[in-house]
Amino acid sequence: MYYRQKVFLILTFSTFLLLVFLGNKVYAQADCADPQYGGCAGCGAKECDYEEGCCSGFEPKGGGYCWQLACDPEPEPTPNVSPTAAINGQKTTPPPNVILVTPGINYINDGDVLRFNATGSDTDSNLSILNLRYFGDGLPTTTIRSTTCSGECSALNLTNVDFGTNGLSGGVGRNLYFSAEAVDQESATGGSSTIRVYVRPVMSISGVLYDAPNIGVCSASSPAILNSNATVSARDNSGSFYYGGVQANGNYTISGIPYGTIILDMCVSVNPPPVGEYRLSCVNGENAYPWVGCYQLTNSLTMTSNQISNVGLRLIDQDPWFTSLYSDVYGGNGISQTVPAPPFSPSTFSGNLGDWAAGSANANKSYAFTASGGVLNINGIGRSGRIYKMMSGTISETRGGFAMRMPFLADKMWPSEYLNLTLPTHGLVTLINDKSALNTINPSSVRVYRITKSDLFDSAGTTYNLTGPGAAVLYYTDTAPLKINGRIISSAVDERIFIVSTAAPIEISPSIGTGTPTTGTLPHIQAGLITTVTGANNVIKYLTNGSTDISVVVEGPVISKRVDMQRNIGNVNSEMYPSSVHIYNSQYLYRFTRQERSSMDIPNYSGLSVVDIDWKWL
After folding, report:
1. If you average pLDDT over residues 265-271, what whole number do you get?
2. Last residue of a domain, one of 16, 48, 76
């Protein structure tokens, strides 16, 4: 309906309808007397009231016309529209984020953190409250968070609302239902879809930390390791670790492992013992030796139920040791060491001071020699005295016996009692300070060789090929330590060299060797090593790298006033392997003495022969 301040006249034929707009009022004029013109004309037409002459609601006017005051009708009340709500969510912790779907079931683990967003909207702009709620199996409806507004309000939001699920699995698993609800100012409500989440329970691993001294023998009935202050941990297939402290009585529990987790490794962190070291021996009934710290399970643990996994530690305290193959050992001041009895597999050593190998005619019958004041102490067994043998067998055998008849008062062993063996003065000396010159040596010639270069035997290694069978003597006369930094190998089985240091120690690099020696490992050094200087420099040193060393195999003889065996291959390796192996090769003395006998024109041309006569009155 339009409202005008002007007057419009509409004339139709002799009878007409006149609409007059006056102010905000609208008048309709009609001729009720003549129904042919529409009866009661105008807006809101009604039947004519002939008694009054005008239709009901019309006012009579002059000229036989009826006028009606027709204001705009009151608008019909607009019906209230209920608000609407929406929700979305995701699992945020632990990573990765996972979008929660609806409809459907979302599986999470007890302790996971969920994050929700909720919105409410109202087309009538009379929104009042937005609620974020949940309920669960056996749990009442609970409001997580709300927000409100008043007056004209068409939208509300709840953003990044975090919800922790610790304990909500109930220990057995539980459904949770999350939704948003919007309420307007007339108390009408609107709800979102529902996000269904199933919270799986968390699992645990428990057991005892125990002493497992025997490899492969796993029994938690063994004594527990008390007051260890250790921590047992489990690593899953995603790389996550779960930890549990070991109680004073040795029991431990790792809690909070998500349902369905696959455990791949079990680990132990423990303070080092006063001596030796701990290694894992048994985990969950599996042989875990000699793993350090962590063991990869052969049978992984699937955490759909609580698990029991006992963990055994083995204390290892094995010092480095040496052995000789097919030879005897002489130690003027005595020999004292502890060897494994026997070494663990895959070692091929028998674990004796001298090792003839099980298949030889003299199996395990090497002899140990000492001076008159020397002490033999092999695994705590031995006697003060001079010449005894040490071998495996019965108690009476391990007490030893004389290896050879030697005059008691002489008590001399070549060449330990003959110091100051120096470069011969006969003049038949050739200087060699180039490794390639070793291949020009003729062992059948009556001469010796001199080297002054301390690093002649460098890390590149040395392979020598004499001009024929025999043994040559090389004197090192410089005062700097003679360094053997690489292998020294002969290209022929009947060609060998002696290296005699007259003024300096001989030092063998820790880089030479192997991590897994056997009784069949070829020598890394095929050269006799002798030091003859007086004092502290009369020493052959097997140097260490300061960490875990490797074993070296040296072909004898190795002769010095002192042999300083610094190499330490570690407790575990020492239970299997010696740190140094010395192999007797008869070619050295056989070729050397033969050449000396054939050079009668120049007695003792090598400078190593000694004539010693003991006599007494009869």
Report:
1. 96
2. 76
Of 51, 76, 101, at which residue does a domain stop? 76
- Cα distance between residue 501 and residue 478, in whole Å: 8
| Burial degree of 489 (CB within 10 A; 0-12, 13-18, 19+) | middle
Distance from C-alpha of 204 to C-alpha of 305, rounded to nearest angstrom: 8
Instruction: Return the pLDDT at 268.
Output: 97
Residue 544 domain-assigned (yes or no): yes
Residues 529 and 380 in one domain: no
Same-domain check for residues 579 and 529? yes
Contact 303, 203 (CB under 8 A): yes
Mark whether 440 and 574 lie in a shared domain: yes
Residue 452 neighbours by CB under 8 Å, 6+ apart: 431, 433, 476, 477, 478
CB 497 within 8 A of CB 484: no
- Report the mean per-residue pLDDT for the chain: 82
What count of other Cβ atoms lies within 10 Å of the Cβ of residue 370? 24
Q: What pLDDT is stored for residue 19 in this prediction?
A: 41
Judgement on whether residues 441 and 377 belong to the same structural domain of the protein = no
What are the pLDDT digits (tens) for 353-403?
665 544 444 444 556 666 666 677 777 655 333 333 333 333 433 333 333
CATH of the domain at 165: 2.60.40.10
Q: For residue 374, is it within any domain? A: yes
Cβ atoms of residues 614 and 407 within 8 Å: yes
In 320-476 the beta strands, taken as DSSP E runs, fall at 322-325, 329-331, 334-337, 354-355, 367-370, 375-378, 387-389, 429-431, 448-451, 462-464, 470-476
| Cα distance between residue 244 and residue 178, in whole Å | 34
pLDDT interval class at 10 (50, 70, 90): very low
Tell me, yes or no, whether 34 and 112 share the same domain.
Answer: no
Verdict on whether the full-model pTM lies above 0.70 = no
| Nearest CA-CA partner of 128 in 190, 196, 193 | 190
DSSP state of 396: H
Neighbours of 5 (CB within 10 A): 8
Both 482 and 448 in one domain: the answer is yes
Q: Does 589 share its domain with 465?
A: yes
Q: Give the per-residue SS3 of 423-456.
A: CCCCCCEEECCCHHHHHHCCCCCCCEEEECCCCC
Residue at 501 is within a domain: yes
Structural contact between residues 605 and 424, judged by C-beta atoms closer than 8 angstroms: yes
- Domain count for the chain, please give it: 5
Which SS3 state, helix, strand or coil, does residue 35 take?
A: helix
What is the domain extent for residue 334? 322-398
Q: For 233-259, how does the pLDDT look when each residue is reduced to its tens digit (9 = 90+)?
A: 999 999 999 999 999 999 999 998 988
pLDDT of 274 over the 80 cut: yes
pLDDT recorded at residue 17: 40
The pLDDT value given to residue 527: 96
- Residue 595 to residue 598: CA distance in whole angstroms: 5
Q: Are residues 194 and 280 in the same domain?
A: no
